[in-house]
Amino acid sequence: MSRPLRARIDLAALRHNLGVVRAHAPNSRVMAVIKANGYGHGVLRVASALETCEGFALLELNDAVRLREAGFTQRIVLLEGFFRPEELPVFAEYRLSPVIHSREQVLMLASTWLPSKLDVLLKLNTGMNRLGIAPAGFEKALEFLVNSPAVGQVTLMTHFACADEPEGVEEQFTLFRQVADGTGLPCCMANSAAILRHPETHADWVRPGIMLYGSSPFAGESAASLGLRPVMTLAGEIIGVQRLQAGERVGYGGDFEAEGPVRVATVACGYADGYPRHAPTGTPVLVGGREARLVGRVSMDMLAVDITDIPEASVGSPVVLWGEGLPVDEVARRAGTIGYELLCALAPRVPQVEVGREGLPAAP
Ligand SMILES: *Cc1c(COP(=O)(O)O)cnc(C)c1O
After folding, report:
1. How far apart are CA 120 and CA 255, in angstroms?
2. Is the pLDDT of residue 92 over 70?
């Protein structure tokens, strides 16, 4: 038995969360966003649990190829498209759909012969100002793609900067509609926040990411209140217990000092596992299902928890760092970040264990 730290990945919860997407956007096809190794959950595992989705979106070409080789037949979209013309034959061979977001990509497509047509997504920059063709150049790019022998179906897309904030999507949405209306082409706009809050953006395709994994896209709204279930539970064990007297300190720098007698548990999980080093004293941790608090500095391989009020806790007691019973969003908030970052920063050294595969096809 190796070091007692595991990420349990609950595939039934993943399917449940897809059901929440479908309930909000019943008339849209779903392009599940599985970039960054499925937000840290394992890209092939996630895709197999979400095999009823009509498409997948990611930006790692090698993972896209692995999906095809594993037998997935859905549309596979590369959100940053291609970077060099040499990649285009791979897109053709594996029937991958690039997002075309720059003039340079349009030119690369123009000057490359391909054995088969690519379905593409043409991205309009409506104000995020990250990727996308400016509205002024959109018509020309679209005309070019529609007439290109290398291009099959064109879908129009954009990405919202503030779908999760009070500002909302109105300005970007209006601009997108102005350009897209009249083209008659399928459209794809909504991320999780827009799926949940801005139904007018659902259109032909939606692009949920974070909500599939059971984390909330909104700062002030819990995943549970949105009907979402956590998919990843990072679970460890107590591997040591110390008894401290007033004035004694814990960990590097001695940041935490006991004010009276305390029992402190050492848990086999640190920042090299993906636990945030910035989580301060007071960050919640579950020990044997009861809430306790992190104390002192998180180190590379271990962290400390005050178990004074949990007398039954001892070496071997189960610990949950986030997941079932302790929302990742709460831990992230304490550490000054968001659930997205903690999920996709789960370290490769943490073994992943699947649960809830009943009724699913065998893993690819
Ligand atoms: C990551 C990403 C998404 C998914 O966003 P969530 O907030 O995780 O739902 C959708 N579209 C694009 C272009 C993305 O990069």
Report:
1. 53
2. yes
